[in-house]
Amino acid sequence: MDSAVPLILAALLAATGVLATSDRVRAAAMLGALVLTPIILLAHIWDSSQLAPFRHHPLYAVVAGVLALAIIGGAAALSRRHPAWLALAAFAALPFRIPISSGGSTSNLLVPLYAVTAAGVLAFALPLLMARGEAADESERRAPWVERALMAYVVLYAVQASYSPDFTHALEQVVFFYVPFALLYTVLVRVPWNARLISRCLGVVTALAVALVAIGFVEYWTRTLLLNPKVIDSNQFSDYFRVNSLFFDPNIYGRFLAVVMLGVMAVVLWARRPRTALVGALLLAYLWAGLLLSLSQSSFTALLAGLAVLGALRWRPKYAVIAVAAVLSVGAAFVLIAPSAVHLDLNSSKSAASATSGRSNLVSGGLRLFGDAPLVGHGSGSFAHEYRRSERVSTQRAASASHTIPITVAAEQGILGLIAYLAFVVLALITFMRGSRGDPVRAGLAAAFVALLVHTFLYAAFLEDPVAWVLLAVGVAMASAPARDEASSPGAPDEAVAEPA
Hints:
This protein is mainly alpha-helical. Helices cover 69% and strands 2% of the residues. A two-stranded antiparallel sheet has the order 1-2. A hairpin with a 2-residue loop joins strand 1 and strand 2 (105-109). Helix 9 (195-222) packs across helix 12 (274-294) and helix 11 packs antiparallel against helix 12 (274-294). The termini are far apart. The relative contact order is 0.12.
């Protein structure tokens, strides 16, 4: 399927699901996107080897479809009665990816999270569309500006796929990530969030992080990775050994740990009971050991940025500024004293590329691509294709993105896309920061979002990461709440560490 029309339609349906003021219109749009997106995906990957059994034996496809519908239908019924279970299931599914062959490459898809999303959409949409008259409960909800900016970016991305030289990659971005995650956002933002539910969700991801770090320890001890041949090969020719646990990428593994650590740190900073602070500190030490084995520099930086936000919201911003300045000073002194430790030769013009594993070349190449087509860019998903063409690089290398999201956006989508991206980022930061001082729940959400944003300045995958959409959904819901109940009191996060411990 090479036409961008179905892609644009799917993006418009997802945007309507997020922005519509009528619940019935929203429900119809969400169901439309839920049906259309798998059709686009199946048309795209129908010839892949993984679907060969279903092509040759249609009965298998029928049985698999019926079984999937039964599972999702049961989950939808449970979600309708207990909305909190949907939130817990979404958080529990965040780390788990399944490799799917597509367009000659392999994408690691969050299939369990897609199932949770489908269940949530059905639980929300079907009762509304089947109800009549006043039972339809057509409520009016004015979408905040951050949602409008986000959906403007998603629709623009789909439109700009129409002239991309790598339409396949753009299609995958939309059907694998943007549309499903927009549906997930629409479902989660309507969950009745409070501090107690957020504490339970933090308990779920903390328990997952503990288990994932244990797997990472086993990988390090046995010098054997479970996933990703590229990382396995890299470890064989390096002086160090990176672990990725059940993630395909050590940097995404590190990002997940950093986000969880910031949630636990928020609990520790506002803890009223010494036992809570002690358990939280032990958890942080354990997770920090796991993060160290990932050797993800971008995750270390993201964690420091999140800690600075927490410090500024817990005490005074000037203390956070002083702490950040001290860390930067120590880092600069270390580079000057021992530049070889970070592969930096101060007398070589190639030292930046060496120190950043070639990422500085990707950034400079991305800036040149932006200069070639500054208004509308080269098309969504085109960075790898255009970088190899422009720089005359014959191999994929690390050119799937510039490893600096604003550079990728500028090169692919030009000024139009960059304006949409920056508008969303600014509005999202305002949403998270407003009213978060002194509130451990909202401070933790703000710190986690800032950490993820900083990570995308140094690595790939922003809106391709469901964590960004989940954090935004909870942040917008908490910011829009008219009042805080007892479960939302600053003392409630003490429960967050108690559960996984």
